[in-house]
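Need residues for this backbone.
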């Protein structure tokens, strides 16, 4: 009986041992560790499919009424396996941009500020209260960038008079439109009609940028092949599952899983994408300006 349980639990114990002894102790920001981990997971899943096919599906009685159901479930598992395989291939590489950003920022900040590109900051809003918007607007105004090269646009899709007055007091540009066509995308496109900057940064109404956001992202656009730079997003409110189970340091929340783990892997495959906030894009067709009024 003991031997039976050991044979049954053997594969599970092997997988657990590999993860606890190796994977959990490996650095996650290295391509070789990710590749080895993904290859191991792929082998485990492949071994499971082998067992499913030859030990449970093919031996099933061919005349049994449930035969088609057995094969249907197996085909569903195969489709799930294809999805897992694509995910493992994506996660098998990693791109770390920190050193590159440090190098570009150091070189960029030594150049004359008069040569820096103009930047427009878009803050799209619909129904956020003033205590949420104020932090974002003040944070955008405090960005470490020449003020004659920086302009803040609050794109209000609710047409609120109090927000217009608030923007006037803060010295930022208030932009609205007569309708809400295409929601946030339409709001941003309407903002582009008023924008004239060479670059456009976007922050949702509840995001506050770091002071060095522009000096770390703008230098990337010295490469003419780059059109958008997406940065990670961080949230100060705790994930309820992590908080309730005290797993903040063990189980990443959905945002951390994407921006810390999945996004760098997609970047390594040149398959990253814009997430709608905390990003900056090139608008090379915009009318150039030498300064701000």
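Answer:
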């Amino acid at each position: 009986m003991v031997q039976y349980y050991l044979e049954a639990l053997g594969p599970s114990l092997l997988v657990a041992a590999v993860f606890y002894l190796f994977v959990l102790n490996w650095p996650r920001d290295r391509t070789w560790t990710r590749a080895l981990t993904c290859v191991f997971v792929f082998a485990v899943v492949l071994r499971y499919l082998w067992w499913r096919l030859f030990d449970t599906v093919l031996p099933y009685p061919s005349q049994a009424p449930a035969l088609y159901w057995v094969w249907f479930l197996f085909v569903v598992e195969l489709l799930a396996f294809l999805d897992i395989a694509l995910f493992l291939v994506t996660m098998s590489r990693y791109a770390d941009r920190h050193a590159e950003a440090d190098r570009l920022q150091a070189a960029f900040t030594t150049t004359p500020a008069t040569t820096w590109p103009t930047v427009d900051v878009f803050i799209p809003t619909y129904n956020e209260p003033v205590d949420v918007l104020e932090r974002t607007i003040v944070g955008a105004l405090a960005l470490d960038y020449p003020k004659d090269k920086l302009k803040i646009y609050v794109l209000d899709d609710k047409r609120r008079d109090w927000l217009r007055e608030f923007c006037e007091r803060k010295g930022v540009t208030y932009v609205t439109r007569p309708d809400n066509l295409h929601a946030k995308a339409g709001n941003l496109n309407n903002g582009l009609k008023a924008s004239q900057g060479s670059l456009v940064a976007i922050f949702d109404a509840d995001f506050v940028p770091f002071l060095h956001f522009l000096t770390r992202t703008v230098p990337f656009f010295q490469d003419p092949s780059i059109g958008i730079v997406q940065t990670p997003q961080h949230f100060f409110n705790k994930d309820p599952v992590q908080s309730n189970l005290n797993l903040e340091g063990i189980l990443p929340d959905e945002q951390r899983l994407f921006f810390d783990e999945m996004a760098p892997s997609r970047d390594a495959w040149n398959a990253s994408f814009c997430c709608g906030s905390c990003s900056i894009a090139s608008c090379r067709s915009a009318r150039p300006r030498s300064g701000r009024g």
